[in-house]
């Protein structure tokens, strides 16, 4: 149980819990192809297709025109509805009502089951999830797993009305200026299957976002293709129909236009595999909730030495975690991990999740007032 400081502190700064459950076309040489027989050309295309490293299959041939591509790809885009409990169950009027909608991409059909990738924030807190297919058919969806930090979730539905899945492309090949298409359901399902076209504004950006698991720095593709609320979870596609990103957010401010973002496909694919396997993304877990020193009232940090320029204050400790067993306490300040200075909670998360693994040992530099000490602990899973 957190003491009164922990309760006041958490309510004041809203600290997140560290370690809590945290997106080819064949270019043919015309002259060469003209010298080959039909059989040789077919064999060449087959060989290149089988050499693809993507584990996700597409159910139709590559489209020939942009309109053909959109017609085909739209069949693999779905609407995702999040239903939440409303009313008061003690008054006898509790019911599930549609809370919000988003988009999703069918990326795999396996027997009687079809799998859909969407954004975690689209389905977060849902009491029921419903998927609306391109044909208008509605299917109840099962949540396989999700991850707040990367904003991804995997759903499963019955495949009886599904005949199209989309293939992931290689986001590493993107260049600024490449043409792309976004397909999704902006604003609501009333605008389902909306198609917008643009270019890649930047193939790689790092932006800071707020998630249910705390602040995070996400690597994204930037595009000027229109992406609005409801497009979240939809597909960003190359002009030959490959999914190179999962649309996730848009900066919405006065006088700001043309700033859409997508999780790169090369990030999405391995995360989907882990979610399918474990139901979540397993990351090293310390077991503390934190607040950036910049957000802490002066009275709580006045005893820190002048050489401390940044760090995070512990707001609460899970007594059964590695932190609890190592003796970390509320109001102590962490300033470094394994000799690397950290200035805020996001930097600590990035180091923890990028440089360390479950089972690794971590050395924390900790201040209790003006007293400095080193705390050794072994990282566990979340």
Write the layout of secondary structure elements.
Layout: H1 4-13, H2 30-34, H3 38-50, H4 66-74, E1 77-86, E2 95-110, E3 113-118, H5 120-123, E4 128-132, E5 138-147, E6 152-158, E7 179-184, E8 194-211, E9 214-223, E10 235-238, E11 243-250, E12 260-264, H6 265-278, E13 284-285, E14 288-292, E15 312-317, H7 322-326, E16 333-337, E17 340-341, H8 345-355, E18 361-368, E19 371-378, E20 380-381
Antiparallel strand pairs: 1-2, 1-4, 2-3, 3-6, 4-5, 5-6, 7-8, 7-10, 8-9, 9-12, 10-11, 11-12, 13-20, 14-15, 15-16, 16-17, 16-18, 18-19
Task: Tell me about this structure.
By secondary structure, the chain is of the alpha+beta class. 19% of the residues lie in helices and 37% in strands. The chain contains 8 helices and 20 strands. The strands form 4 sheets. A 6-stranded antiparallel beta barrel has the order 1-2-3-6-5-4. The longest helix is centred in the C-terminal third of the chain and has 14 residues. It is globular, with a radius of gyration of 24 Å. The two termini are 19 Å apart. About 15% of the residues have low confidence.
Radius of gyration: 24 Å
Strands ordered across the widest β-sheet:
1-2-3-6-5-4
Instruction: Bin the helical content.
Output: 10-25%
Structural class: alpha+beta
Q: How large is the share of residues in beta strands?
A: 35-45%
Count of helix runs: 8
How many strand segments?
A: 20
Biggest pleated sheet: 6 strands, antiparallel, barrel
Q: Which outline best applies? A: globular
């Amino acid at each position: 149980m957190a003491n009164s400081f922990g309760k006041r502190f958490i309510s004041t700064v809203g600290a997140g819990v560290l370690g809590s459950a945290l997106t080819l076309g064949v270019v043919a040489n015309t002259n060469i192809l003209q010298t080959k027989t039909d059989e040789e050309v077919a064999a060449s295309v087959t060989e290149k297709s089988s050499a693809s490293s993507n584990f996700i299959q597409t159910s139709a041939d590559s489209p020939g025109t942009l309109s053909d591509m959109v017609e085909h790809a739209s069949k693999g885009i779905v609407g995702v509805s999040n239903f939440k409990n409303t009313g008061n169950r003690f008054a006898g009027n509790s019911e599930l009502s549609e809370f919000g909608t988003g988009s999703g991409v069918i990326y795999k059909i396996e027997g009687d089951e079809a799998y859909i990738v969407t954004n975690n924030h689209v389905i977060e807190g849902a009491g029921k999830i419903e998927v609306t297919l391109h044909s208008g058919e509605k299917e109840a969806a099962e949540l396989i797993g999700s991850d707040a930090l990367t904003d991804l979730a995997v759903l499963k539905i019955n495949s009886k009305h599904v005949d199209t899945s989309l293939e992931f492309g290689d986001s590493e090949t993107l260049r600024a200026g490449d043409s792309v298409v976004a397909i999704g359901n902006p604003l609501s399902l009333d605008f389902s299957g909306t198609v917008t076209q643009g270019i890649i504004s930047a193939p790689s950006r790092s932006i800071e976002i707020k998630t249910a698991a705390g602040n995070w720095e996400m690597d994204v593709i930037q595009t000027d293709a229109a992406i609005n609320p409801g497009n979240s979870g939809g597909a960003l596609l190359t002009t030959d129909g490959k999914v190179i990103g999962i649309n996730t957010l848009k900066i919405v401010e006065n006088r700001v236009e043309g700033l859409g973002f997508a999780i790169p496909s090369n990030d999405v694919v391995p995360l989907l595999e882990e979610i399918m396997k474990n139901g979540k993304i397993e990351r090293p877990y310390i077991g503390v909730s934190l607040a950036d020193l910049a957000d802490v009232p002066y009275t709580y940090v006045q005893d820190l030495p002048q050489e401390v320029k940044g760090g995070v204050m512990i707001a609460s400790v899970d007594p059964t975690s590695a932190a609890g067993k190592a003796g970390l306490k509320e109001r102590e300040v962490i300033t470094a991990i394994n000799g690397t200075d950290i200035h805020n909670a996001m930097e600590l998360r990035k180091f923890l999740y990028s440089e360390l693994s479950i089972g690794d040992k971590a050395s924390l530099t900790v201040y209790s007032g003006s007293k400095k000490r080193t705390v050794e602990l072994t990282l566990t899973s979340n």
